[in-house]
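Researcher: Structure for this, please.
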Amino acid sequence: MADNPSAEDEKRRQNPPPVEFVRPSEAQGPAPPRDQPPAAWVPRPEEFGQPPQQPFPQAWPQVVPRSGRSIIGGVLLIISGLLGMVSTYIIFTQPLSAAEIAAIQNMTAGDLAANALLVFAVVYAQAFAILGGIMAIQRKNWKLAVVCGVASLLNFGFFLIGTFIGLAGLIAIITSRRDFIG
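Model: Predicted structure, token format:
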């Protein structure tokens, strides 16, 4: 079958190739007229013009404007964490009195473990408060911001100011649920 070419194959071989496939030794044919665009014409962007503006259907949900409560809650959580850090720094940098040294020496192993756990919780509460504040300011991950707000209640700060500021931030974040992305 490959030895006997058909009449159709012979006819295709006799026709010259299209203009795009010219051998280097051959001359190219005349260009198409300018008033007629070529087959692969790509219009310029300015020829498209502006698309007509279509109004939005009324059935689409309207976007509710975001309130600033999530940002206020985030700032309050960050302030709570910073107050906790400052108060922890002041407590750890003050020298111990003789009475405090005697109280530490008289503590049992259970008292020392409870004290260490309390310090551990308070220090990590400061980090969680700052993390929750950042999440609330960015309006991402409402659940994490609420959990970090609850953890910020362990920021005792100066006369429990850190706890009350953390509580105010937690309330602001809880009430701004719809402002968060996910």
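Researcher: Any notable elements?
Model: The radius of gyration is 38 Å. The helical segments are 7-14, 45-48, 69-93, 98-105, 109-138, 142-151, 161-175.
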